[in-house]
Amino acid sequence: MAGGKENRVRVILKCTSCVRTSVNKKSTGISRYITKKNRHNTPSQLELRKFCPYCYKHTIHGEIKK
């Protein structure tokens, strides 16, 4: 039936304020979420406010490249 590229693609969102490169931090993780977006309606990179369990607050999570 319909061939070609799919409209909805899977994207990974990563916390932009988490910097976990330091050894002194207790938790050594980076908050990531997986979601889907419509490629035609949102051609730019996606940014959402999500809860980061490592920062203990709502922060901006931006789309990363695969």
TrEMBL record:
Protein name, as recorded = Large ribosomal subunit protein bL33c
Q: Which UniProt keywords apply?
A: Ribonucleoprotein, Ribosomal protein
Q: Which GO terms describe its cellular component?
A: cytoplasm; ribonucleoprotein complex; ribosome
- Entry GO MF terms: structural constituent of ribosome
InterPro entries found in the cross-reference section: Ribosomal_bL33, Ribosomal_bL33_CS, Ribosomal_bL33_sf, Ribosomal_zn-bd
Which regions form coiled coils? none
Q: Which family does it belong to?
A: Belongs to the bacterial ribosomal protein bL33 family.
Which organism encodes this protein?
Answer: Erythroxylum novogranatense
Which NCBIfam families does UniProt cross-reference here?
PRK00504.1 (NF001764), PRK00595.1 (NF001860), rpmG_bact (TIGR01023)
Matching entries from Gene3D superfamilies are given as: Ribosomal protein L33
> Which PROSITE patterns does this entry report, sorted A to Z?
RIBOSOMAL_L33
Q: Name one GO biological process term.
A: translation
